User: Which sequence fits this backbone?
């Protein structure tokens, strides 16, 4: 039985799984920029008249922003600004800065959704790796049970034939393989736990992304 080579292979597998897990943890531990900043509040994202995300935004001479349709409709009834009541003189310019802000918010929302998607993929990979490790651990347990059966069945014969060293080596092999099985089972459980944590974070971040998505119209 090539127990030493099996142990080295198991150790290599464990190291590889540990390395992959650490890389995933470092990546997902990076704080995503999902929170609002002062720049986000510098310019409005909703029309003061309809209270909805801008559609074809314009700016008045008094620096107030509206949807073009809302501004023109209001101007038909009232020649003053809807916000400050100053005369607009019918001047409604394209709000270039608002359009740029909307584009920035859209890009931010896309990046957030992409990041969440990446997190979900990583969680799925962790679960898949954990399942593989669990299956391998089960195979090792079967091997341990087989080795224990051999010791129990042939222990007396080995002692009688002055093969005490062989019996000791076999028992030691059982202990080594059993320890490997325990380690793999523990690592698999840790990976599942980490995958669950990543999934929960992905849900929370997706909720934040939806808030950003709803701040702007997507058919401009």
Assistant:
């Amino acid at each position: 039985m090539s127990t030493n080579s099996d142990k080295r292979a198991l150790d290599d597998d464990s190291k590889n799984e540990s390395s992959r897990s650490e890389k995933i943890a470092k990546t997902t531990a990076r704080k995503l920029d999902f929170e609002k900043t002062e720049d986000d509040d510098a310019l409005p994202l909703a029309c003061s008249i309809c209270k909805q995300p801008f559609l074809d935004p314009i700016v008045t001479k008094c620096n107030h922003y509206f949807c073009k349709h809302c501004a023109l409709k209001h101007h038909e009834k009232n020649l003053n600004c809807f916000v400050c009541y100053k005369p607009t003189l019918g001047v409604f310019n394209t709000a270039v800065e608002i359009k740029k802000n909307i584009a920035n918010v859209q890009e931010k929302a896309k990046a957030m959704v992409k990041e969440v998607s990446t997190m979900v993929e990583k969680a799925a990979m962790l679960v898949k790796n954990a399942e593989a490790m669990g299956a391998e651990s089960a195979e090792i347990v079967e091997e341990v049970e087989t080795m224990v059966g051999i010791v129990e069945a042939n222990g007396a014969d080995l002692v009688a034939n002055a093969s005490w060293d062989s019996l000791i080596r076999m028992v030691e092999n059982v202990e080594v393989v059993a320890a490997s099985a325990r380690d793999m089972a523990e690592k698999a459980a840790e990976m599942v736990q980490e995958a669950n944590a990543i999934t929960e974070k992905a849900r929370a971040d997706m909720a934040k992304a939806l808030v950003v998505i709803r701040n702007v119209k997507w058919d401009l």
